[in-house]
């Protein structure tokens, strides 16, 4: 019975496929895989906007939205209606085609990444041999969309905002990919399904997730920090930076195109969180061996919600970084740590299992982390600022 | 150490998050249309015209001297002075504003009109829900809409209103005493010249 519930969507899909002629079955099968993703994740976006506003409100000792519907539950619908009915303003001098295509490309790039995410046992759109590679390749399409938006607006602010956004996204893409390499090394495969399988199994009641190893933990933390920066979320939300540059690259977008940018941003966040779950948190596997009867998709989505809650928590806590802090952090802390982590994963692989390998690897992670952060801190000497023109 | 400050901050926000569900007095929100905070006496928003007594038209203190119109920085006051005089609340014949309009959308709540008014006829209101669904009609307030009683003024700015009332009462008392003196002097004056003429006649 638990197996039936676990595989209910797969069974339903096969049952539905039985009703269509054999010639169109591949097409229909693809459709049946894609449509649920197009429904579930945008819906999750709507729910997240509400939960985020409520959570941020509570963090600031406010109620958050509570006017529209019972407990403010209809707020996403109100937001959608508002953004749909707003006037769509396009600048006179804008490159209309590119201006129109940018938000679409952003959203479709974010949606493409879901193709290789296993959201449950046997629940994946395309089980590619190079799934992780595909994921990062598609993820970098977002940069192109951002630059299209900034450039086609024919506005210096949006162009500068786009350049700034791209500088950040490219900088953080490097540690993001390097942080995930350790998992590929350990699992010996680029396929997301194989990576989840490599983490299956339990020691006692504890799962064999990569996050429970020194290099896996470091990799997970680095991956999540880079994912936060990749999806332009606080404290790395410089590209939009409302208080400094109004809205960065999408300053000239209004109405539903603006909403599409937000949708793309959140879809990207869900996708990278899903990838973090797949790489480090055992994918759809249960956290304890006695909970394996709970459906796999339930575990995937609860892990996703926990990570999103973490994102919201961080957003409610940390102030925005400065551009130089952001770049220093990426190139002088994240990158060396990510490179070192690959070495540590290698050490872990070649040392015999036991306490000594744990000890060595923990020291290898912690010591550089402390030394690096101390060293970077020492360089930052406060000095009296002189304002040449303001005095 | 690295990250200690981050963890401290995260703990603080977590405490806020959980605490706001446990203790109600953490929440500072006032759920506005249903709940309201008590009005602050010093707050001010938009001018109104004070009238004494019951009738807003007769009791209006404004004598359309046009000072506020001239002083208004964004020029949002429009006054048309009357050609005739009408008795005010005290019965004294005065000019009155035939038209007195203020444009809500232009007013910047600077209170200069109140400060320059020599008759304490214009004061600042505390009402702040001035929004309207009609962009062109409901934003130009006429004389009748602007008129509010002295009692209302006493209610929203008690201290200020008491001082104004005392000053006005003092002024009226002085005026009355003066007029009494002048009427007496007139009476005396009426008597003296006749005596002079009498004495002059005798000399």
Automatic annotation (TrEMBL), chain A:
This is NADH-quinone oxidoreductase subunit H. It holds the Pfam family NADHdh. Keywords: Cell membrane, Membrane, NAD, Quinone, Translocase, Transmembrane, Transmembrane helix, Ubiquinone. The chain crosses the membrane at residues 27-51, 97-117, 129-151, 172-196, 208-229, 258-285, 297-318, 330-351, 357-376. GO terms for molecular function: NADH dehydrogenase activity; oxidoreductase activity, acting on NAD(P)H, quinone or similar compound as acceptor; quinone binding. It is a multi-pass membrane protein. Its main location: membrane. Belongs to the complex I subunit 1 family. GO terms for biological process: aerobic respiration. Its EC number is 7.1.1.-. NDH-1 is composed of 14 different subunits. Subunits NuoA, H, J, K, L, M, N constitute the membrane sector of the complex. InterPro entries: NADH_UbQ_OxRdtase_su1/FPO, NADH_UbQ_OxRdtase_su1_CS. It is an enzyme of class 7 (translocase). It comes from the Bacteria. GO terms for cellular component: plasma membrane. It is found in: Cell membrane; Membrane. The keyword Transmembrane helix applies. NDH-1 shuttles electrons from NADH, via FMN and iron-sulfur (Fe-S) centers, to quinones in the respiratory chain. The immediate electron acceptor for the enzyme in this species is believed to be ubiquinone. Couples the redox reaction to proton translocation (for every two electrons transferred, four hydrogen ions are translocated across the cytoplasmic membrane), and thus conserves the redox energy in a proton gradient. This subunit may bind ubiquinone. PROSITE patterns: COMPLEX1_ND1_1, COMPLEX1_ND1_2. It catalyses: a quinone + NADH + 5 H(+)(in) = a quinol + NAD(+) + 4 H(+)(out).
Automatic annotation (TrEMBL), chain B:
Residues 52-82, 98-127 form the 4Fe-4S ferredoxin-type domain. Keywords: 4Fe-4S, Cell membrane, Iron, Iron-sulfur, Membrane, Metal-binding, NAD, Quinone, Repeat, Translocase, Ubiquinone. One of its GO terms (molecular function) is 4 iron, 4 sulfur cluster binding. The keyword Translocase applies. PROSITE patterns: 4FE4S_FER_1, 4FE4S_FER_2. It holds the Pfam family Fer4_7. InterPro entries: 4Fe4S_Fe-S-bd, 4Fe4S_Fe_S_CS, NADH_quinone_OxRdtase_chainI. One of its GO terms (cellular component) is membrane. It comes from the Bacteria. This is NADH-quinone oxidoreductase subunit I.
């Amino acid at each position: 019975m638990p197996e039936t519930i676990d595989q209910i969507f797969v069974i339903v899909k096969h049952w539905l496929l039985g009703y269509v002629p054999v010639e169109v079955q591949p097409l229909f099968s693809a459709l049946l895989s894609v449509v649920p993703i197009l429904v579930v994740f945008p819906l999750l976006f709507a729910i997240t906007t509400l939960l985020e506003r409520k959570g941020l409100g509570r963090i600031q000792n406010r109620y958050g939205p509570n006017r529209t519907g019972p407990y403010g539950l209809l707020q996403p619908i109100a937001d959608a209606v508002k953004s749909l009915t707003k006037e769509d303003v396009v600048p006179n001098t804008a490159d209309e085609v590119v201006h129109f295509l940018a938000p679409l490309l952003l959203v479709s790039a974010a949606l493409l990444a879901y193709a290789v995410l296993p959201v449950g046992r046997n629940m994946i759109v395309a089980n590619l041999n190079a799934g992780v590679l595909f994921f990062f390749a598609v993820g970098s399409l977002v940069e192109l969309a951002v630059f299209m938006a900034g450039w086609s607006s024919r506005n210096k602010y949006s162009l500068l905002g786009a350049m700034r956004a791209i500088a950040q996204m490219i900088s953080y893409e490097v540690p993001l990919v390097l942080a995930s390499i350790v998992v590929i090394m350990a699992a010996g495969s680029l396929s997301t399904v194989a990576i989840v399988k490599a983490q299956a199994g339990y020691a006692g009641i504890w799962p064999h997730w990569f996050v429970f190893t020194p290099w896996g933990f470091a990799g997970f933390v680095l991956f999540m920090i880079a994912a936060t920066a990749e999806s332009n979320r606080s404290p790395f939300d410089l590209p939009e930076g409302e208080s400094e540059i109004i809205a960065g690259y999408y300053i000239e977008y209004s109405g539903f195109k603006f909403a599409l940018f937000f949708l793309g941003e959140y879809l990207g966040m869900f996708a990278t969180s899903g990838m973090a779950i797949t790489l480090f948190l055992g994918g759809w596997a249960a956290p304890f061996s006695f909970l394996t009867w709970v459906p796999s998709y339930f575990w995937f989505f609860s892990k996703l919600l926990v990570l999103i809650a973490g994102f919201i928590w961080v957003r409610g806590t940390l102030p925005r970084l400065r551009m130089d802090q952001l770049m220093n952090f990426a190139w002088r802390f994240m990158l060396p740590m990510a490179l070192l982590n690959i070495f540590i994963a290698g050490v872990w692989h070649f040392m015999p299992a036991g306490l000594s390998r744990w000890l060595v690897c923990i020291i290898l992670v912690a010591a550089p982390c402390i030394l690096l952060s101390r060293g970077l801190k020492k360089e930052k000497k406060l000095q009296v600022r002189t304002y040449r023109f303001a005095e | 150490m690295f990250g200690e400050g981050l963890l401290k901050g995260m703990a603080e926000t977590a405490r806020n998050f959980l605490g706001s569900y446990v203790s109600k007095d953490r929440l500072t929100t006032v759920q506005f249309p249903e709940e309201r905070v008590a009005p602050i006496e010093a707050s001010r928003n938009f001018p109104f015209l004070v009238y004494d007594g019951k009738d807003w038209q007769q009791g209006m203190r404004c004598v359309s001297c046009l000072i506020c119109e001239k002083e208004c920085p964004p020029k949002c006051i429009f006054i048309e002075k009357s050609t005739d005089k009408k008795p005010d609340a005290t019965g004294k014949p005065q000019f009155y504003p035939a038209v007195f309009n203020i444009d809500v959308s232009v007013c910047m709540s600077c209170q200069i009109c109140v400060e320059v008014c020599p008759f304490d006829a214009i004061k600042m209101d505390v009402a702040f829900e001035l929004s309207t669904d009609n962009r062109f009609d409901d934003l130009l307030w006429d004389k009748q809409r602007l008129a509010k009683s002295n009692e209302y003024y006493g209610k929203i700015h008690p201290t200020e209103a008491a001082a104004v009332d005392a000053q006005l009462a003092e002024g009226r008392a002085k005026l009355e005493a003066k007029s009494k003196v002048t009427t007496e002097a007139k009476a005396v004056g009426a008597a003296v010249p006749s005596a002079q003429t009498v004495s002059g006649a005798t000399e």
